[in-house]
């Protein structure tokens, strides 16, 4: 089946990226590891960059599947945000050894694995949609200008947490776990303060900063 | 002179990293390009990672030299912060083609070029000190808890702007320039709001999040 073959190739690529490094892994070696011919491998993936992108998409999909059942209706935003961020770390844990290489490959804006690339549109939409669920499920009152943009802002926060996790040298990335525990209530508190009239100007500015049309960030 | 020789090696390394890429650049090639023997090159630098680190340090030094004269005594924080961030972009501009490779090399926490590494202590101290000057020069009133930590927070902001600049595909990185213009007043507004009693809890939390002793971020 096509999906099985794709999965075998991505699993083989991940093992090799982890064990021998990205540079030393060739498409031939990936094909061998997956028990496929080189031609067959190229039928599914144009090259290593596309395999890295596939891993990115599958992590987003798994993140969504793991996180959604953990969200609690009418729970505080801090609790649901914390649950969603920890779910992301849970899903990424097996990939930590490959994390640096992944970010290195995804860094150029021209890389299809970049979270800001056109090719990552689906993965990005899935991740932002998860944050939309976090907001919609939680008991939280928001100024109207912020409501629409909050899922995007939380997604940027999640990217920041991911970057912290990638470079986290602590055992089992405990520092990032601790960061998530402390970050979620701070975000929740900032969101609560955003409803005060005195904060309105600042909230509008932050929202404007991250508008897609403004050209910043993506 | 020792300093001249170091400068020749770093300049040669930068040219090669930019022209033929980091992977293809060997220490022998760097030595040849600088007109030195391989042994002489190794006398100054243990390898490519250390040369990348040297570039990082020299950029921080130049950033400081260019930014300090642009700070205006008693100017609003937004103006001085904007000046300091643009100065950083000015200094980094010749390196943009190498920016992705630089971040790729600096990404592992174990890399000496990482802004969080022990080896980068001096470069980090210089960069934080520049932000200290930005705060000290500006006309701004701060809650006491925030005063001590603000230079560190602004340095983290500068790292974020740098990351945005590295992946910025727009001509001459105009998006990042525009981001700086819009970001500086937002930061200044957030700092002004931090003095309100209602924001005190949030300010304390943000400060605690980024305390070095908390283990987060570094």
Could you explain the architecture of this structure?
- The structure is a homodimer of 218-residue chains.
- Chain A is mainly alpha-helical and 218 residues long.
- Chain A has ten helices and no strands.
- The A-B interface holds A 23, 100, 103-104, 107-110, 114, 116, 164, 166-170, 175, 178-179, 182-183, 185-186, 189-190, 193, 196, 198-199, 201-202, 205-206, 208-209, 214-217 and B 23, 100, 103-104, 107-110, 114, 116, 164, 166-170, 175, 178-179, 182-183, 185-186, 189-190, 193, 196, 198-199, 201-202, 205-206, 208-209, 214-217.
List keywords for this structure.
218 residues; homodimer; mainly alpha
Short description:
The structure is a homodimer of 218-residue chains. Helix content of chain A is 69%, strand content 0%. Chain A has 218 residues and is mainly α.
SSE order of chain A: HHHHHHHHHH
Q: What structural class results from the helix and strand content of chain A? A: mainly alpha
Q: What are the segments of chain A in which pLDDT stays under 50 over at least 5 consecutive residues?
A: 214-218
Number of helices of chain A: 10
First and last CA, distance of chain A = 36 Å
On the 0 to 100 scale, the average pLDDT of chain A is 89
In terms of quaternary structure, what is this?
homodimer
What percent of the residues of chain A sit in helical stretches (DSSP H or I)?
A: 55-70%
């Amino acid at each position: 089946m096509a999906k099985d073959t794709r999965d075998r190739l991505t699993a083989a690529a991940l093992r090799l990226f982890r064990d021998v490094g990205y540079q030393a892994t060739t498409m031939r070696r990936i094909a061998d590891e997956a028990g496929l011919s080189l031609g067959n491998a190229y039928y599914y993936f144009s090259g290593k960059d596309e395999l890295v992108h596939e891993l990115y998409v599958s992590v987003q999909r798994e993140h969504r599947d793991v996180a959604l059942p953990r969200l609690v209706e009418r729970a505080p935003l801090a609790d649901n945000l914390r649950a969603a961020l920890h779910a992301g770390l849970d899903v990424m844990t097996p990939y930590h050894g490959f994390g640096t290489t992944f970010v290195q490959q995804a860094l150029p804006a021209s890389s299809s694995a970049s979270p800001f690339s056109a090719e990552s549109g689906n993965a990005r939409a899935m991740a932002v949609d998860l944050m939309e669920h976090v907001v919609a499920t939680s008991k939280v009152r928001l100024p109207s200008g912020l409501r629409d943009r909050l899922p995007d802002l939380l997604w940027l926060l999640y990217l920041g947490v991911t970057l912290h996790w990638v470079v986290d040298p602590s055992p089992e990335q405990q520092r990032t776990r601790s960061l998530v525990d402390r970050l979620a209530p701070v975000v929740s508190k900032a969101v609560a303060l955003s409803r005060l009239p005195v904060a309105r100007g600042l909230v509008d500015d932050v929202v404007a900063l991250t508008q897609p049309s403004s050209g910043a960030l993506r």
